[in-house]
Amino acid sequence: MEPYTSDEEFLFYSHDPLTSAPVTMWSGAAAYFEEHEIKIWTLRNAPGIPPKLASCFAWHVTKDRSGLPSN
To answer: How open is the CA angle 1-22-24, to the nearest 5 degrees?
Structure first.
């Protein structure tokens, strides 16, 4: 496992990332209990994102990267 020098950045695009600029960026730590708050942040800051994709992102940054065992 490689040590990170900073938090991962997640860029959100409304169109093809090769031809458009990101609409927002998320970076930082998220606790396992913040999944709902991260989903709300994603829906507010990445206009047009499908709710299921926002949920998936929220799960990934709160539970998938946490090192906690999956259910």
So the answer is: 80
Residue 42 CA to residue 44 CA, distance in Å, equals 5
pTM, to two decimals: 0.79
How many residues are there in the chain?
Answer: 71
Domain ranges of the chain: 30-66
For the stretch 15-64, pLDDT in tens is 999 999 999 999 988 899 999 999 999 999 999 999 999 999 999 999 98
In sequence order, the 6+-apart residues with CB closer than 8 A to the CB of 52 are none
- Residue linked to tokens 């206009």: 47
Torsion of CA 69, 59, 34, 36, to 10 degrees: -140
